[in-house]
Every structure is written in C-alpha cells, then in structure tokens.
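Reminder: ligand-aware prediction takes two inputs, not one.
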Amino acid sequence: MRLLKFALTSLFFYLLLKAPGFFWDKPIPSSLVSMYMFFIVITVLLVMTITDEGARGLFAPIRALVEDPSKKLVRNAVFVILPLAAVFLAYDGGGLKATPSELRATHPAPPPLTRGYGKTFDLATLENPFRKIEKEDPEAFKSLVKEGGEVYFKNCFFCHGDKLDGRGHYAHALDPKPLPFTGGDTIAQLQESYVFWRILKGGPGLPREGGSSISAMPAWEKELTEEEIWKVILFLYDYTGNTPRSW
Ligand code: HEC
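Here is what comes back for the chain with heme C:
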C-alpha cells in the first residue's frame, strides 16, 4: 500500500513537470526533468521513511517478495525479468560505445554578432521577418511554410529525417547525430535568431565547446538565400508544432 503510494506520488510529480504550460508555457528540457525527479524521489523517500513504522510499511512488499516462501513463483519471475530489462537498457542506450574524447555542448552560447550576406546580424535582436505574417495573413503564411518545406526536402532531410526526427539516411553514420526538431529539447528551447545562426554557419561556425571540428552540419550561407533560411525555420516549427522561444 505504501509502496503504491510512493510510486503514485513520484508519478504525480513527473506528470506535473511534463505537463506543458503548467509551470511555464514551454516544455522543460528532459535532462532537467531527470534532475528534478532525482531530488523529488529522494525527498518523497525521506518523508515516507521518517518513522520506523513508515519505513517498514514502505519496504514490506519488497521484503515479502524476497523472503515469503509462498511468493516463490513471482520472485523467480522478477529476478529473471529485472536483469533482462537492465541488459536491454544498457544495450539500447549505447552502453557499449566508447566515451566521447571531448565533452560537447549541444547548444553552446551563440556569438553576439554574426556576419552573412554582406551584413552583420545582431543575434540578440534579430527576428524572423516572416513571423508577423502568421497573424496578419494566415493564408500567405501557409504558402511561406510550404516554400520552407521545399527547402527542407531539397537540402536537409538526408540528415534530419523526413519526419524531422533526426533519423535521415545519413544519420547513422554521423557522430554527433543530426538533431531532431520534434520533441521539446531542441528548437522548442531556442529563439529563431539562434536557429538562424546555426543554419547560416553550421558546424564550422560552432565555438570549440560545441564540437566545431566534428559536426557534419553544413554552413548554408553559400547555398541558401537569407529568405530561404527564414522560411525553412518557419517550416521546422510549423511541422513539429513547436513555437520559438521569445523574450
Ligand atoms: C550532412 C548532414 C546534415 C544536413 C544535410 C543538415 N544538417 Fe543540420 N545538423 C546536422 C548535425 C550532425 C547536427 C548536430 C551537430 C551540430 O549541432 O552541429 C545538426 C544541427 C542542426 C541544427 C541545430 C539544432 C539545435 O537544436 O541546436 C539546426 C537548426 C539544423 N541542423 C538545421 C538544418 C537545416 C535547416 C538543414 C537544411 C538546410 C540542415 N540542418 C541540413 C547535420 C546536417
């Protein structure tokens, strides 16, 4: 009973953190969620085991499972399933891979200014010139998104995938892997000016801690026009249902 209560309490907090728009109108990065959950689980455990009786109640089902002769069948099943699950997790999570030779920041701080198309862009104030059309003229906006989609399927899907999930044809050969645009951890956390800088300058434009020497992300400034980059950004957000971060 108490074990169930513990599981339900933890689950409740997990869902609370995951629910978009509850604390902030943005999803919380999953690395932060795991960190919060670590402290939440410890706190819940502390509170629930503050008395001896509470601790006994919480661990009784686990003790019974290990000691009670009548639970032999369940016990054997659990002791087969748990190690198998651990093997699966370790195998699937790339546990056999060598550790990376250098630490790499996935979203390193951008430079304050960046140059392209004969201009200097101030990344702190730069905005997507097409974004305002979303409200002013939804029909015109739709066709801009469509043009962005064409740019994407001519240039980007080989790596970032036809579902924008980072699983393009070339993805398995690359390390670092192309980032997915779906989910709450990449573009959902970024401003459009950041995404613009990343597409403009690609891997070579990353600072050292971003892994400039190993990223396969091309710099698109010679291939795409400024408008094409802004349109493909519209498409990335529109297709994945994400909204850009803003001030
Ligand atoms: C040759 C493979 C390849 C192609 C083609 C490619 N990318 Fe990438 N892209 C990557 C890789 C690998 C990363 C992750 C490493 C990094 O951040 O540089 C990345 C990262 C990104 C990021 C950073 C996302 C984030 O969360 O920081 C953006 C934005 C991006 N790509 C957009 C595009 C767009 C738009 C195109 C097409 C115009 C494109 N990419 C084409 C390989 C590619």
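The radius of gyration is 24 Å. The mean pLDDT is 88. We will return to this case in the review session.
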